[in-house]
Amino acid sequence: MPHHEFECSKVIPERKQHAVIKGKGEDLTSCLPKGYLNTIPGSISERGCAYCGAKHVIGTPMKDVIHISHGPVGCTYDTWQTKRYISDNDNYQLKYTFATDVKEKHIVFGAEKLLKQNILEAFKAFPKIKRMTIYQTCATALIGDDIDAIAQEVMDELPGVDIFVCNSPGFAGPSQSGGHHKINIAWINQKVGTLEPEITSDYVINYVGEYNIQGDQEVMTDFFKRMGIQVLSTFTGNGSYDDLRGMHRAHLNVLECARSAEYICDELRERYGIPRLDIDGFGFKALGDSLRKIGLFFGIEERAEAIIAEETARWQPELDWYKARLQGKKVCLWPGGSKLWHWANAIQEEMGVKVVSVYTKFGHQGDMEKGISRCGEGALAIDDPNELEGLEALEMLKPDVIFTGKRPGEMAKKVGVPYLNAHAYHNGPYKGYEGWVRFARDIYNAIYSPIHQLAMVDISKDAIPTDRGFVTRRMLSDKGLPEEITSSTVLSPYTGKFDSVSHLRTKTYPDFPRAADTAGDAEEIIAVVE
Amino acid sequence: MTCEIKEKTRVGTVNPIFTCQPAGAQFVSIGVKDCIGIVHGGQGCVMFVRLIFSQHFKESFELASSSVHEDGAVFGACGRVEEGVDVLLSRYPNVKIIPIITTCSTEIIGDDVDGVVRKLNEGLLKEKYPDREVHLIPIHTPSFVGSMVSGYDVAVHDFVKYFSKKDKPSLKINLITGWVNPGDVTELKHLLAEMDVEANVLFEIESFDSPLMPDGSEISHGGTTIEDLTATADAQGTIALNRYEGSKAAKFLEKRWDVPAIIGPTPIGIRNTDTFLQNLKSMTGKQIPQSLVRERGIAMDALTDLTHMFLADKKVAIYGNPDLVIGLAEFCLDLEMKPVLLLLGDDNPNYKTDPRLLALQENVDFEMEVITNADFWELEDRIKNKGLELDLILGHSKGRFVAIDYAIPMVRVGFPVYDRAGHYRYPVVGYKGATWLAEQMANALFTDMEYKKNKEWILNVW
Lengths: 530, 462
Hints:
The structure holds 2 protein chains of 2 kinds.
Chain A: E1 19-21, H1 50-59, E2 66-70, H2 73-79, H3 92-95, E3 98-99, H4 104-109, H5 112-125, E4 131-136, H6 138-143, H7 147-157, E5 162-166, H8 176-190, E6 204-210, H9 216-226, E7 230-236, H10 241-245, E8 252-255, H11 258-272, E9 276-278, H12 284-298, H13 301-326, E10 330-333, H14 339-351, E11 354-360, H15 365-373, E12 380-383, H16 387-397, E13 401-404, H17 406-414, E14 419-421, H18 432-447, H19 450-455, H20 473-477, H21 483-486, H22 516-529
Chain B: E1 3-7, E2 13-14, H1 21-29, E3 38-40, H2 44-57, E4 64-65, H3 70-75, H4 78-91, E5 97-102, H5 104-108, H6 113-122, H7 124-128, E6 135-139, H8 148-163, E7 173-176, H9 182-194, E8 199-202, H10 226-230, E9 237-240, H11 247-257, E10 261-263, H12 269-284, H13 290-304, H14 307-311, E11 315-320, H15 322-334, E12 338-344, H16 355-363, E13 368-372, H17 376-385, E14 392-395, H18 400-405, E15 410-412, H19 430-452, H20 456-459
Parallel strand pairs in B: 1-13, 3-4, 3-5, 5-6, 7-8, 7-9, 9-10, 11-12, 11-14, 12-13, 14-15
Helix pairs in contact in B: 1-2, 1-8, 4-6, 8-11, 12-15, 12-19, 13-19
């Protein structure tokens, strides 16, 4: 029986359906945990709420917007500054967050007037910002405030101002995933098609499900621009509100995080006939294939191939330096949702590590399908894990490193397992060729930290080596490696800079002349769809 | 020269200084041994609060959620609490105390948490856990009332009220610390030990700074026990260091069990620490020993090196928990600094009559503003649009962007601090805290001179 029963969860038998160990010769048809079901109260699950899924994950990475949460201050405060979605406009969306500050009297008498005052105050404080998103919270959903009506009222009164409303209270669904869905649909219903974008290329995409964690979006957009592709909008990292109103004019939706943003892609296909192409920015092979697929779609494969060749030549020796040293290291891949399948295969193939467990906090069964199929035999897959199961799994699997969130990372630290932040990264970005090497570097630095090794020494019992006053990572990682690797003149550890992103913001790109007839075709296609 | 106490005039909040009540109750909950709280509401109310605790203390703490979903919001979610209590008890054999902490959503839908507790006490606990000591404590902390500060006050009160019981009089005192760091608790216990005073420290969170042990056995958790809480009724007195974080419990003990209470002052700075020792002396009859005279002398020596030469007349803005802010402002005045702007992040009506603020009003000889129900825009707007010039900002990490964007030196103090290393380990209370604070402020100013090339060749050299 592939289902795995945790000792600590025997008293809640339904949990058994939520964990599997992939056995010999088994595939998805014989083992798949249940997923995306209601959380068991009191289990100390790691899930968040639908409000944070909508506002914190998808809404706020949008960069040129006043983001207001309509409710008491806590929802806003708690999510503020806990994620690294940077932007190229001095991080306005990270620095400023707004709460309508609903108090008891508003709960009794309604908070619509309060909301309107808030909107006006916010626009007054930041006169240059003309765009706003408003997020419902548990409190204002329950008292039944009509946020849409207030937003419309303000838009009627203040020409030039545009407001988006997302009704996704914290209780709306088993996890943050419910909020992802709600904001996807709300955006296409309210905003897509309300602004006509300027088309400057024959090849136009929306980059969807990408949140610019430590600069991922900027790295990926660099590749697209080098291919002469116009990135009409990014949903939503480093994305601009008005650009996202023009999503309907793209020729292709390039989808990164299919967990959080496939809904809007599917709607864009349904309503505007724009095809969806799922890609992967993580890993040399997956990224190369992704660029190739996009190139193939537009008939510009050679541009993709040129980038792949150049980037691979530049970074492969550095990735391989780490691969030689990470070979066989055991990893628990415990992210939120999509990274379990984005990373599972790629890190095994390209960094040599072994994924001994995957888990997902808010993923659905589809994410588990992809994740488990990309894991090897014996991997433990857990849906909606909880504190005790996590500890039991660490005890059982004894991984060398764990990729997870900040707080579970602290739990792992205490049992002697180093962690990397899977949501916000350590020293990212991790997308792109260079980013992937940075990820390998961070994994290497975690596993071979001399301090981590020292933490395992019990000075009351163990032998205390007194021969020297230090140990380097290389002394630990290169022990037993063949001479041709340790003294290779080809392989090299990471040589990039601390900041691998800022220079992209001032970069210039080659001018690809547009083919007049192709442009005509594109417009025809759109006309037909309309 | 005036000192105005006024409420923010805007209704909204741009960059909040505080989070809401349930977070305060959760902070109390993790300070108690064999206790895991269940927060009755959406999952984010727990998940993000646990994250902020881990960002600040670099540790993971256990708190559960009743995971209210849509059906619960529509039909009532008391069943989620019942199930949650059972699941928690069945998987955590050491848990004895479960506070049920309410939130905005479950207060609005009107879940009868007290009724659920009665039902569980009569039913589940008797039937399934007859031989087990279990305490369920309803804590009402709707998010639309007060702030994390009042949530803390309410929860301390509710814990003390639930457990306190007279047995036989003891010589111990109760020391209710308020929302502090492990380093503060260490320093307070040191002062108590030097005074030879036995105290019941609520809450015993020194252990939040916990080790990474070779056998991986350590879990971060507070150390206050049921016995400690019960014995609060037998103490010869209570000192609540903070007026807004713990005084409700001190007053309860006074009224219900005749345990005399002294509220405040927060022992920040030399003068307030002196008063704290004086209060210990008057409550217990113990003398202030030479060792503390000497320790105080070391602090005075350090401060004398800094005050009139470097710190005098420096203009400071301070924000955060009210007792912390007021204590820091008082200390700054002793250091000859000018706390020109104090921001208190909630609308507690008692601020207007706080004797410490009234004393500031009477005596400061420069323009000073105290803003209640404040947000960070009150700070930034004054700098950006109204010509406020500051030399220093004191406060927690959430306000860091003002310091960064306007290049104003800042010393992180309060909760949460997630962009500096190790702050939870250092005290801001007691003589050691006074020294540490003054030296942090001086060093922040020195570094700033170097960055701004502002007389650094002469002014940061003794």
